[in-house]
Amino acid sequence: MNLSASDIHNLYQPSKCNLRVYLLAKGEQQAPQGDFSTMLMALGSKHETQYLETLGVHVQPEGRTQEERWRDTQRLVNALTPVIYQPVLLADAPSELGSHRIVGIPDLLVLQDGLYVIRDVKLARNVEGNKHPEIVRQLSLYGWLFRQAFGVPPAELQLLLGDGTIATLADDDGAGAMNALSEVLQLGALPEEPYEPVGWSKCSDCGYKKRCWDRATKEQDVAILPGVDQGFARFLRDEKVLSVTQLLERFDAPTLAVAQRQWGQRMQKVGNKLADNVLAHARARITNEVQHLAAPEFPESPNYIVFDIEGMPAYLDDDEQAYLWGTQLYGEDGGDFTPALAGFHDGGDREGWFDFLENCQTVFAAHGDLPILHWGSYEKTKINQYLERYGDKQEIALRIRENLVDLLPMTQRSFALPDPSYTLKLVELRAGYKRTMDEFGGNWAIVNYALAVESEDEALRKEVMDQIVLYNREDLEATWAVFEWLRSLTTA
């Protein structure tokens, strides 16, 4: 059996998951890769290709089999070939891992001052801390393989990041990689499926998401409750509390509050606040009824602005561009949907920002300062970012920021919902809002905007952007529908 860097990746991505490794070892099929994952792979390949062009001439080992390409890699290294693309490195695993072979295919071997640097090319922009343990351990593996193959360590382990900078990683002589591969082997050899708590964000991009969430929902696993993190779920399982019903039967607020659960590297009491919150979500789940936690502090006004942004994440765009700033007046007067779009031309990003400020100023001029409702912290983050990038106009941005009202934390503090997450796409269903679009979502918008950016076809661009604008408009409608629903709960 061959062990590889892919095994390390599967352990940690899209999130650390023991069950995924077990299921892969047993040959259980994953769901087909979605458009977002496909786009990331395409962007990663493009990033790699563009970087290769900057290096000039490079040689790729030849051969039909992995063994043949490994032998050709040795030939190229011994010949001090300046740049070797996708070299194949093979070695027998350490005895403690059993009789396996380990294979690694780094992106590049680059000759510098007579010594080889191992360099991988990734979209990631930061590997500090524990942000990308799979990348760090994969480089660790390549360093160990190089040492085994050629008797000397590589000059450096390097990572070309998504922003074009090069990070140098510490060489631990394969220790991190071997620990990860040992874990992979142990998980694959388990006689039965290990318990792995589901998580709404944790499972979002995994090919086994539907499988695991369907089972967790059917069994009413405690991990489906907001507030029950991974350590909390494992603690409850150790206490033989497997389901939401068992949680309510076994604990009340005082007994759950003093229970000790794992928190990072230490044990910590659950505490009164979290105990009350989790039990309220458990009751909401069992009864399928919203539970009141505290009196909400929703702003009172005859009119409101509802606000939502579509933008590109940092790992896909150097500027983290916000390309659509959607606003609409709701309430007694109502108003038209006013999207501000960044153009595809030079300066289009700046124009989109100031068009957004003008749209808000028009509403302020007619109605004075109004609460500006949004869902989540993204909108405030982008306001601050663009204030720094392009500045303000008659202090409109400062006025906008002062009037922002994030409905998400208010909702979380005030209501326990019978849902696994407070994402708008779930809460809007609870509020009775139904979209007209069959496909939508943040990742959907990112994929389609990337398509528009890459295209020179103006008709296609318009078609794509019209769909994204509709999606943004329905985000505003959904936010308003949720706000009205939440207010109705307080008067019921």
Give structural notes.
- The structure is a single chain.
- This protein is α/β, with parallel strands linked by helices and 492 residues long.
- The chain has 3 domains: 2-188, Alpha-Beta Complex (Lambda Exonuclease, Chain A), CATH 3.90.320.10; 209-289, Orthogonal Bundle (DNA polymerase, domain 1), CATH 1.10.150; 303-491, Nucleotidyltransferase, domain 5 (2-Layer Sandwich).
- The chain is built from 18 helices and 17 strands.
- It has helices at 5-12, 18-25, 35-55, 66-78, 133-150, 175-188, 209-219, 230-238, 244-250, 253-257, 272-287, 348-367, 378-390, 396-403, 407-414, 424-430, 442-454, 458-491, and strands at residues 2-4, 83-85, 89-92, 101-104, 108-112, 115-121, 156-160, 166-169, 260-263, 266-269, 291-292, 303-311, 322-331, 337-341, 372-374, 404-406, 415-416.
- A hairpin with a 2-residue loop joins strand 9 and strand 10.
Task: Provide key terms for this protein.
five-stranded mixed sheet; Nucleotidyltransferase, domain 5; Lambda Exonuclease, Chain A; alpha/beta; DNA polymerase, domain 1; 492 residues; globular
State the gist of this model.
The protein is of the alpha/beta class and 492 residues long. 47% of the residues lie in helices and 16% in strands.
